Amino acid sequence: VQLVESGGGLAQAGGSLRLSCAASGNIFSINAMGWYRQAPGKERELVATINSDGNTFYAASVKGRFTISRDNAKNTLYLQMNSLKPEDTAMYFCASGSGIDYSDYNVVGDNWGQGTQVTVSS
């Protein structure tokens, strides 16, 4: 499975961005997808996940501001980010896998995109 993110960029605090992640290859193996982010000097953290039934999970820091969704016809995952804050600044990565580990809501798998940078100015 190949994953390619796009849509990152510079936004002002309070603004919005929409990230996209296009999947190709053995897409029939994908049962769950998610968005992660990594800020400089920090560990990669889970942002949101979605399973094959459309059930979603959000990190507390983004709940109510971000929305994860997918378009199966286009094999594309989205992350709508509203009310952006400077602390949302990070490299955002798309991931896919065979399911969700419900102990921590992480995607079970090791497929990652190359990332797209999001920078939010105050």
Task: Offer a few descriptive terms.
4-stranded antiparallel beta sheet, 7-stranded mixed beta sheet, mainly beta, about 120 residues
Describe the protein:
By secondary structure, the chain is mainly β. The protein is built from no helices and 13 strands. 0% of the residues lie in helices and 56% in strands. Strand 10 (99-101) and strand 11 form a beta hairpin.
Question: Brief description of this entry?
Answer:
The chain is mostly beta strands. The protein is built from no helices and 13 strands.
Helix and strand topology:
Elements: E1 2-6, E2 9-12, E3 17-24, E4 32-38, E5 45-51, E6 56-58, E7 66-71, E8 76-81, E9 90-97, E10 99-101, E11 106-108, E12 111-112, E13 116-121
Proportion of residues in helical segments: under 10%
Query: Percent of residues in beta strands?
Result: over 45%
Class by SSE composition: mainly beta
Number of helix segments? 0
Mean pLDDT: 96
- How many strands in all? 13
Shape: globular
Beginning-to-end CA distance, first to last residue: 37 Å
The sequence of SSEs as H and E is EEEEEEEEEEEEE
Let me know the largest β-sheet: 7 strands, mixed
Spans of at least 5 consecutive residues with low confidence: none
Q: Rg from C-alpha positions? A: 13 Å
